[in-house]
UniProtKB/TrEMBL annotation:
This is Iron-sulfur cluster repair di-iron protein. Residues 85-229 form the Hemerythrin-like domain. Pfam families: Hemerythrin (PF01814), ScdA_N (PF04405). It comes from Pseudanabaena yagii GIHE-NHR1. It comes from the Bacteria.
Length: 240
């Protein structure tokens, strides 16, 4: 039985079955910011045969025995809580650690590998932007979403409709996506040179895990949380 179609959007595929997400990551097929593209479009953009990729997806979906969190069944509040407790908590801890690592490695090895200076600048910039981004979600958007879910009427807000702050968060997600692509390119897909010291290798491992977590994080917001919040607000607006 076919599980997926090449006409499915990549965001829908990972939303419904998270297990293939690593295959998307390995192939550099963007399922978070680029989640609205069909599998066919996303594969062709990367020069991948869509049918071959579809077969690989089917194999993973069929063989995966790992229990998966079905985020589509979570309430808005439960999903917002999950994102904060999982992805925001990870970033609050990991961003400062990676800032120290990229700074140290660039200082020690930047003369031999000038790209490390670019990596440092890009990461420090995206880290600062993410710190502000997390605050806006935790203090403004997520409380709005929770209030919307439990209110019988649409809560009033200086933001107007909830789509306004969501649109801003999606713009910022796109900016983060660009930074992730740049980091991947500058590190040769996080591959250490033969001469790399342990700190260099640990930095690349940390950046790879950062990329993987960000893809999952943005996917859950762009493709699940945000559309459900907008749909709920529209539904309540129609009832009033």
């Amino acid at each position: 039985m076919t599980t997926f179609q090449i006409s499915d959007t990549v965001g829908k595929i990972v939303r419904d079955r998270p297990s293939p997400s690593r295959l998307f990551e390995q192939a550099k097929v963007d399922y978070c910011c680029g989640g609205k593209k069909t599998l066919d479009e996303a594969c062709r953009k990367q020069g991948i045969d869509p049918q071959v990729f579809l077969t690989q997806l089917e194999a993973i979906a069929t063989s995966s025995q790992e229990p998966e969190l079905n985020i589509t069944t979570l309430s808005l509040t439960e999903l917002a809580d999950h994102i904060e407790q999982t992805h925001h908590a990870y970033l609050h801890t990991e961003l400062p650690r990676l800032e120290r690592m990229v700074t140290k490695v660039a200082a020690v090895h930047g003369e031999r590998e000038p790209r490390l200076l670019q990596i440092k600048d890009i990461f420090l910039a995206v880290s600062q932007e993410l710190a502000t981004h997390l605050q806006k979600e935790e203090r403004i958007l997520f409380p709005m979403i929770r209030q919307l879910e439990f209110s019988t009427v649409i809560p009033s807000s200086h933001c107007g409709t909830i789509a306004n702050p969501i649109r801003q968060m999606e713009f910022e997600h796109d900016d983060a996506g660009v930074a992730l692509e740049q980091l991947s390119q500058l590190t040769d897909n996080y591959t250490p040179p033969e001469w790399a010291c342990n700190s260099y290798r640990a930095m690349l491992d940390g950046l790879l895990n950062f990329e993987r977590d960000m893809y999952q994080h943005i996917h859950k917001e762009n493709n699940v949380l945000f559309p459900k919040a907008i749909a709920l607000e529209q539904s309540k607006s129609n009832q009033n």
